[in-house]
Amino acid sequence: MNSMSSLEARRLVLRNDVAELQRLAGWIEGFAQQGMSSDVSFAVQLCLEEAVANIIMYGATRDDRLEIAVELERNGGTLVARIEDNGRQFDPTRAPPPAVAASLEQAKVGDLGIHLMRSFASGMDYERRDGRNRLTLRFVESRPSPPG
Amino acid sequence: MDISTEDLAGGITKVVLQGRFDTTGAVVIELPFNKIVTEQRKIIVDLSAVNFLASYGIRVLLVGAKIVKSKGGDLVIVCPDNNVAKVLKTAGMDALIPIHQTETAATAALAS
Fold it and tell me: Chain A residue with minimal CA distance to B84?
């Protein structure tokens, strides 16, 4: 246990293959076991699954082989997740919110991933740098009220 | 991810899903689930043993509910108040598919 610093980081590199989502889930679970609250763990797993699934399914033009790097870093009470990929430019922070359906019959199937990311992450930033998409998600641990 | 069914009184079919209902899990249960929603008219989808839900799982539930509805049937969800329920509500599913916290409430809703 490092009492001098609460910083710790981990990195995982994935290919654009749907089977990689299972590897991602296992990797996050391993990280989550190190004292992350169950709510934050759930939120991180959800947002990373949605973000990476989007890149895997829509990031490649034709049969390009993509490299998707996921990084988790804990800094005190905040968990920061960074996702970087060399796929086509896509800024999820600018995606419009999903349409509200009037009925089950009229409800559109899909377009929920980014909405879930926005709702479950505490913050979300995007930048395009050196031909890569770089998405940063922040998750703030809710703390119990201080005594007194 | 696992899927199993149970016949309840009143012609109700209970579909029990178990595990991580993410992209990987949804792909596994999608075909058997679609078969059930095509063949049955009163369906309870029990998510009590589902510990994770992502958008691909929601897609499977929504498509299923649409199929049942198009055939004049009803599909309801049983889900305790947890993070999976929070995903369903955030996605607006509670406005489209009835969500109950207990099987008793779900059964009563289908019987009425």
Answer: A42
